[in-house]
Amino acid sequence: MKSSNIGGQAVLEGVMMKNGDEYAVAVRKPDGEIEVKKETYRSVIKWGTLTKIPFVRGVFNFIDSMVLGMKTLTYSASFYEEEDEKGKRMTEEQVKKAEKKDSLLMGVTVAFSIVLAIGIFMVLPYFIINLAGNVIKSRVVLSFLEGVLRLAIFIGYILIISKMEDIKRVYMYHGAEHKCINCIEHGMDLTVENVRKSSKQHKRCGTSFLLFVVIISCVMVFFIQSDSQLVKVGLRIALIPVIAGISYELIKWAGNSENPIINALSKPGLWMQNLTTKEPDDEMIEVAIQSVEAVFDWKKYKEENFGAEK
After folding, report:
1. How far apart are CA 155 and CA 106, in angstroms?
2. Torsion sign (Cα): 194, 275, 217, 60
3. Using CA of residue 153, residue 154, residue 155, residue 156, what is the dihedral sign?
4. Burial bucket for residue 9 (CB in 10 Å: 0-12, 13-18, 19+)
5. Burial class of 44 by CB neighbour count within 10 A (0 to 12, 13 to 18, 19+)
6. Residue 115 half-sphere exposure toward CB, CA atoms < 13 A
7. 35-91, pLDDT tens digit by residue?
8. Pick from 176, 173, 169: which is nearest to 195 by CA?
9. Which residues pair with 27 in a beta bridge?
10. Considering the entire predicted model, what is its pTM?
């Protein structure tokens, strides 16, 4: 199975699909119609080479993904604003000011999200486990417990937000996104019926990437040795780009390989996707299909990779 190299994200009542520099967002509006917006994404990373160097590109592509994710999520949410906000017309100057404000807010939100994630998933487990340092003297045991706690926080976070009603629907659209990509990559026509019977799990999923980040961080933290708490915390933070870079390469390898080893490494991530993807209904699948077709010629892909009708 050859990777289509398309990826996406579930948004509020919709799906975003990205192919190269082009992306499309399809949203089911409150009136039932599907709105599709297609644009070219301009990377926030000014040096494009950094997004192509193996083991370096991972962290920069992750930042781009967060920025694009926030942008498309905000766009999808705009269809579901309060009724008293609808129908208001803005002047061109007001529109420009609003876009500038949204861009600044998005940058602050992404930066804050990254700092918060580092604090919760990298720094907090260290300080919690460090409290047991007077009782447990073994560095190996402490490192193991820190890794277990980090993994438990990650899984717990996903479990908690999965109980929210709005998140459940987002997870259903997440399932629709995966099903569309699996349908294409298995050589089937992109129809509601074929998408419905495709898998909602995919090895290139962001959930798998984050799980790789957590697991690899547990391994790398084990090799940090210092008597200074400041150094220990600093090294945990400094290693994040390295961890993200390794995780990104593993995800890319997984998406283009059926190697038994990489398939085995992908299993935990696929299991985690049972928490972050749900079975979509046909209307959700229709939205995902329109998002795919706006940026990807699946018929050409099928002809080049599978030939005969399937």
Report:
1. 26
2. positive
3. positive
4. buried
5. middle
6. 6
7. 999 999 988 887 778 778 888 898 888 889 988 998 999 899 888 874 445 545 445
8. 176
9. 14, 35
10. 0.87
